Amino acid sequence: MVILLYFFSSVFIVLGFMMLFGYHRTKRKEFILLSFVYSASGVAAGHSLQWWPLIAGFVVAWLLKFAGYDADKPPPSSRPTDPPPGGNG
Questions:
Q1: Is residue 89 part of a domain?
Q2: Which of 18, 24, 50, 77 is the one with CA 20 to 30 A from 86?
Q3: What global pTM score does this model have?
Q4: pLDDT tens figures, 6-22
Q5: Residues 70, 35: contact at Cβ < 8 Å?
Q6: Backbone angles phi, psi at 19, to 5 degrees
Q7: How many domains in the chain?
Q8: 83 domain-assigned
């Protein structure tokens, strides 16, 4: 069981580093926040040999995504603008 805990902890830490490299490419602050959440939960679970930091980190990451800190959506500057109301564009 400890092997699975170490495996999932290392997956969370690697995911955190991948988010950090994503920040380096895009300079979007969502990647820093999610990187911290995933890495911290992976390190906490690996250090304490408990499973609950992984679950808590996953839940916090999803709550951040629902709150609008989603790294998958395009940044505000690249979103298409809506046409003016009452006009043909």
A1: no
A2: 77
A3: 0.77
A4: 999 999 999 999 999 98
A5: no
A6: -65, -35
A7: 1
A8: no
DSSP alpha helix (H) spans, 1-89: 2-26, 29-48, 52-66
Q: Pick from 32, 14, 15: which is nearest to 23 by CA?
A: 32
Q: Are 56 and 12 in contact (CB under 8 A)?
A: no
Q: Which of 38, 29, 37 is nearest to 70 (CA)?
A: 29
Long-range contacts of 74-79 (CB under 8 A, 24+ apart): 75/26, 75/28
**Torsion of Cα atoms, 53 then 57 then 59 then 61, to 10°:** 180
Q: Identify whether the C-beta of residue 49 lies closer than 8 Å to the C-beta of residue 60.
A: no
Token pair of 10 as six digits? 């290392």
Structural domain boundaries, residue 38: 2-72
Q: Each residue of 23-77: pLDDT tens digit?
A: 888 888 888 999 999 999 999 999 999 999 999 999 999 999 898 887 777 666 6
